[in-house]
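Section 5: illustrative case.
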């Protein structure tokens, strides 16, 4: 393990660590203290005012919080008998206002019966987006768990939906997880066609829409029982699949160094204790793995961004368990050498955030990326302003 220290909210300079910039300080703002579980978060402009708003998928409602007052607007409530579990939020038609899809009927123990497990909805907004939206239910696989809007090589957006299990999966065995791309019709209330992106993984917890270069096409990082895979869409259909690791993985995110070199951050295994960094290795099929922390308890939230302003991404990780240290929290990990081999950590939240999900965006237009996190046992939604 390469972590050599943990630092709290100080302005220790990177000069003392062989670097050139000061570590950031994060100002905490709780915008909702009555979250039930906080399954998923997103950041997007919801009303066309060019300010990033916060969207929360909670157990019994989905809501958006309006920047900068953070006033809460309920989008939908009780879509299914069981909990909502995920959202996909993005402006997919270019009007400056985000579209939303949602996953619900969260029942991970039922992997066969679609009437008892899983649900997928597209949400149609009213003219006044602060009012309730209209759900359109789509076909689905059991154990619907994660979703994202994905920009395709044709310039359109697909809704990619990832179940937790394959059909009939018990103990990691059964059919492969059917990761589906939903193709939105011009009339959202008519039938959506689907394409299978991947069906070879058993138990897949999360995925990332990856874009290493702003001018490059989107790729997809898929993490699960068999490891991490990089998926690429072809313009004429079909997907290529490259294996990055063979270690069971829960969360996975992309990152880049100052010269554009790629790395991948992963929490291992699902709900695991390890934070790993993967870098490509010449002549090797699998990427090199560097476990930079193994003290997490139910690691469940992961993000990357340049919080230090040095042109290279750092890693933010959140955990929700207390059995190892007695505390939940959020940490920022940053490399101290050019090869990203040595890492140190900055404690952002000490025992006030049982992190279920975390997102990165500049919320106050000061040029610095901020954090948004939702807590399960802590029942809160917080902004961490990067100052």
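Designed sequence:
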């Amino acid at each position: 393990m390469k972590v050599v220290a943990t630092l709290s909210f100080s302005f220790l300079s990177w000069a003392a660590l062989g670097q050139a910039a000061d570590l950031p300080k994060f100002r905490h703002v709780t915008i909702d203290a009555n979250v039930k579980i906080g399954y998923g978060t997103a950041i997007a402009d919801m009303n066309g005012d060019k300010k990033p708003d916060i969207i929360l998928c909670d157990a019994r409602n989905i809501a958006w919080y309006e920047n900068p007052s953070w006033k809460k607007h309920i989008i939908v409530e009780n879509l299914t008998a069981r909990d909502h579990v995920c959202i996909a939020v993005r402006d997919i038609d270019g009007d400056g206002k985000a579209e939303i899809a949602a996953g619900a009927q969260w029942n991970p123990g039922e992997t066969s019966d679609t009437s008892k497990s899983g649900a997928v909805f597209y949400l149609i907004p009213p003219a006044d987006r602060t009012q309730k939206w209209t759900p359109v239910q789509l076909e689905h696989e059991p154990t619907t768990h994660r979703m994202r809007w994905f920009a395709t090589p044709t310039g359109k957006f697909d809704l990619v939906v990832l179940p937790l299990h394959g059909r009939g999966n018990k103990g990691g065995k059964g059919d492969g997880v059917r990761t589906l791309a939903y193709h939105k019709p011009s009339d959202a209330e008519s039938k959506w066609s689907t394409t299978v992106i991947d069906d070879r993984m058993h138990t897949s917890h999360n995925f990332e829409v990856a874009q290493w270069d702003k001018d490059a096409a989107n790729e997809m990082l898929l993490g699960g029982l068999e490891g991490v895979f990089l998926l690429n869409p072809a313009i004429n259909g079909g997907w290529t699949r490259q294996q990055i690791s063979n270690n069971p993985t829960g969360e996975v995110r992309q990152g880049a160094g100052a010269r554009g070199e790629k790395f991948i951050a992963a929490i291992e295994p699902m709900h695991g204790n390890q934070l790993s960094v993967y870098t490509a290795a010449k002549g090797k099929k699998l990427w090199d793995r560097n476990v930079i922390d193994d003290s997490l308890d139910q690691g469940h939230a992961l993000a990357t961004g340049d919080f230090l302003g040095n042109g290279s991404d750092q890693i933010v990780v959140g955990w929700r368990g207390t059995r190892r240290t007695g505390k939940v929290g959020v940490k920022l990990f940053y490399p101290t050498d050019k090869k990203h081999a040595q890492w140190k950590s900055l404690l952002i939240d000490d025992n006030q955030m049982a992190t279920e999900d975390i997102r990165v965006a500049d919320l106050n237009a000061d040029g610095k990326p901020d954090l948004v996190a939702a807590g399960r046992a802590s029942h809160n939604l917080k902004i961490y302003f990067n100052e």
